[in-house]
Amino acid sequence: MKVLLVEGYQEMSKVAAQLFAQEVRSKADLVLGLATGGTPVGMYAELIRMHQEEGLDFSQATSFNLDEYVGLSSEHPQSYRMYMQENFFGQVNIDPRKTHIPRGDVQDLGAECSRYEQSIVAAGGIDIQVLGIGNNGHIGFNEPGSAPDTRTRVVQLTMSTIEANARYFEAVDEVPTQAISMGIQTIMSAKKIVLLASGVAKAEAVRNMLEGEVTPAVPASLLRSHPDVTVVVDEQAASQLS
Ligand code: F6R
Questions:
Q1: I need a surface site. Which of 8, 87, 223, 226 has the fewest CB within 10 A?
Q2: 127 catalytic, yes or no?
Q3: Which helix (H) or strand (E) holds 22?
Q4: Read out DSSP for 174-197?
């Protein structure tokens, strides 16, 4: 694992956007693995700037998001489809038909998960995956205890994750309790991974990921057996590292 220590959120976002832009420039039909949440908003903003001012071209790219809440339609303001539309897709020239996010509002969730996995394989696999990290060490919505061989599936969110995500909803009981998430193995199959961590709330998870035991109890620690992971971490998130 390569660790890049940066000052704060702004620098983290710029460094991450540079890493992504480099890949987009070197392979026009890149397959991007994307994340939602607070962490990558600044990276998306920087990629949008690069698109507008430097002509960074996403027209041939394909994307797959990590996860989506179960029970929210694509039009729900807190759905991850809506988040991606507002924070990225709507402001760059990616072809909407090539953007993929699991559908959390379908009858047969199991079939949706299998379909999603197959679409990733059919696209040739993910070239570069961006990840955030949960306060509890989750990646995607692979909560502590997620097995290394998991693929896209329906997962139960922990109370820690529900509480952390309640900031986007009117009340904690409006946060969905389940999600569809790429599994650990799906994530590990990406050719390149960039994990971003900013702020003191992530410090313990970052320490456990980098310096603790490699264990499903800290899903992000499993990334240590991937051959090409870059962790971009700011001073606050790195504050518990020895
Ligand atoms: C988002 C995702 C999650 C978040 C994590 C951190 O698609 O899969 O793993 O990356 O919960 O969230 P933030 O960035 O809001 O702290």
A1: 8
A2: no
A3: helix 9-26
A4: GS-SEEEE--HHHHHTSSEEEEEE
Check: CB of residue 138 under 8 Å from CB of residue 204. no
Residue nearest to atom 5 of ligand 1 (CA): 134
pTM over 0.90: yes
CA–centroid distance, 197 to ligand 1, in Å, is 10
Contact 185, 150 (CB under 8 A): yes
- From the CA of 140, give the closest atom in ligand 1: 8
Report the residue among 141, 142, 143, 198 best suited for mutation to probe ligand 1: largest number of ligand atoms under 8 A from its CB.
141
Task: State the catalytic residue, choosing from 51, 65, 67, 165.
Answer: 67
User: Has the ipTM of the complex gone over 0.90?
Assistant: yes
Residue 121 has what pLDDT? 98
Q: How confident is the model at residue 105 (pLDDT cuts 50, 70, 90)?
A: very high
Query: What pLDDT was estimated at residue 12?
Result: 99
> All domains of the chain, ordered by start, with CATH?
2-234 (3.40.50.1360)
Instruction: Exactly one of 105, 117, 143, 234 is catalytic; name it.
Output: 143
The model's confidence at residue 71, banded by pLDDT at 50, 70 and 90, is: very high
